[in-house]
Amino acid sequence: MRLDADQLAAFAAVVDEGSFEAAARRLHVTPSAVSQRIKALEASVGQVLVQRSRPSRPTEAGQILVRLAGQVSVLESEALSELMGELPGARAPLRMPVAVNADSLATWFLPALADLPAEQAMTFDIRQEDQDHSIALLRDGTVMAAVTAEAKVVQGCRAEALGAMRYLAVASPEFRRRHLESEKMPGALASAPMLVFNRKDGLQHRFLRGLLQRNADPPVTYLPSSWGFVEAARLGLGWGMVPEQMARPAIDAGELIEIRPGHPLDVPLYWQRWRLESAALAALTDVVKARGLGLLNQDANKEHAGQGR
Amino acid sequence: MRLDADQLAAFAAVVDEGSFEAAARRLHVTPSAVSQRIKALEASVGQVLVQRSRPSRPTEAGQILVRLAGQVSVLESEALSELMGELPGARAPLRMPVAVNADSLATWFLPALADLPAEQAMTFDIRQEDQDHSIALLRDGTVMAAVTAEAKVVQGCRAEALGAMRYLAVASPEFRRRHLESEKMPGALASAPMLVFNRKDGLQHRFLRGLLQRNADPPVTYLPSSWGFVEAARLGLGWGMVPEQMARPAIDAGELIEIRPGHPLDVPLYWQRWRLESAALAALTDVVKARGLGLLNQDANKEHAGQGR
Predict the structure, then answer these.
(1) Residue A22: CATH number of its domain
(2) How far apart are CA B242 and CA B233, in angstroms?
(3) I need a labelling partner for B120 at 20 to 30 A (CA). Which of A108, B63, B110, B230 fits?
(4) Residues B219-258: pLDDT tens digits?
(5) Is the ipTM of this complex over 0.90?
(6) Cβ density class A121-157: b for 16+ within 10 Å, e for less
(7) How many structural domains compose chain A?
(8) For the HTH lysR-type domain, which residue ranges apply (chains A, B) (predicted)?
(9) Chain A interface, mutation test: which of B231, B246, B255, most A Cβ atoms within 10 Å?
């Protein structure tokens, strides 16, 4: 049995764009043509492949084909570029879907992409995801690679350790004056307003537990934006754990202070990617490892795996 | 019929925290106590209120109670603070759930929060959402207020116009040299790599259509982070539409150039909030309107409603 290439392309476009209409626009055909191809593909494999929801998501069976379609597209694009050379217009640049944790995206990841040699004409579909979701995206074939705090290798992937991201507990000088100097430290931290990235971000509570030797329940502001998080600390809306790379300029400028100098938290990061012989994926891996190993903290205490944001 | 306050609190905690276990931790009871309260509440209203999924989401019937619980919590917190004054520990600060579009969060919204008078001891649960989702969050009671590009008033809410956010088409000087000077402008833009925030961000395509008088399909990098977007433009990964407030410092520093000076896009923004007599919500509205009207572009061409990110 062979899969029909048009049907597979229609399926990949629906999953990628999230709807039959958008897929039809991209393929320059009618939505009903897309729908017929999907139905034919489903009939040929004897399984429902797409949930008819909004956005259209692959079923569990569909995920296997998402991954196949992604791998075929990489290999095809590379074969074409080998055949036809890098003539302008010879091929559309390969779009590489990757998942990145928010704080890596806000610091070292984009400079790594900019390091790619010019002959690797790639574009990217970047998903900013927490680590749990990244693993799901690798598994279901939505992304080809991910920067994640999860060390456990996803099936069909290769994982490599990057450095660890170092977090500092910071606040504005005015915040310290107002919330942390009236009472004895570190006890004052048990009731001072705290910034937390989202429901899964346990860094602040971990720092507090280490300091207070007990659990604490301070008032929390949830703020799911890396740069917003630093800005909110600078503006005195709370204290929080910030990547050293983002905190350092504000600390040097006197806009942020370290709450407990000498008490950083280190979060080891990993690069997980599909096992696929692809020059593009190899080139991406090279620049990510160079920046990831170079910029992050190599001598970090790595006992605290499995937390990150 | 009266609703039981403990049961309602258990329900609100489950929806807020996303699981029975986390709700139990917050309420200092066992997960099975939480489960019993939810079942009792469901029995008393004769409807299923919580989807037993991960995260736990309210059903359609449950959404009515989410909103009720939020309103009761605001009014209760304000009555307590009136009764007991602003003594430290008299009450936990009110946590205000708000939805904000990404580019507002990256620019004027956090400074607005920092403008709140000190006696309004509030924390925030900030959701960074595109406008469609913000409307759903207002409607189902998850947030009390939202900054959104949607002018249509959500039922039970009050909407007020803020200014418009002005976007400039920018790229790095090196990007222009490499992609835009070899061919005639504006035609060269039809094939130069383009940055797009996410699948719903139509700003770049709109700018292109205005310039080329036709649709174009350039290679796209999706990058759902406001600061990452500016950084990617600075690093030469593509051109894109960036809020003037974020682009200006990089333009002044010579790191970004405007692709077509004098061709901005303006996106009007609105502040939608629950109709609720609450001093906290009124104070928040004051600072948001002051910054929103003051920082954004008042004399903007407002014909382009309903797009934003």
Answers:
(1) 1.10.10.10
(2) 9
(3) B63
(4) 999 999 999 999 999 999 999 999 999 999 999 999 999 9
(5) no
(6) bbbbbbbbbbbebbbebbebbbbbbbbbbbeeebeeb
(7) 2
(8) 3-59
(9) B231
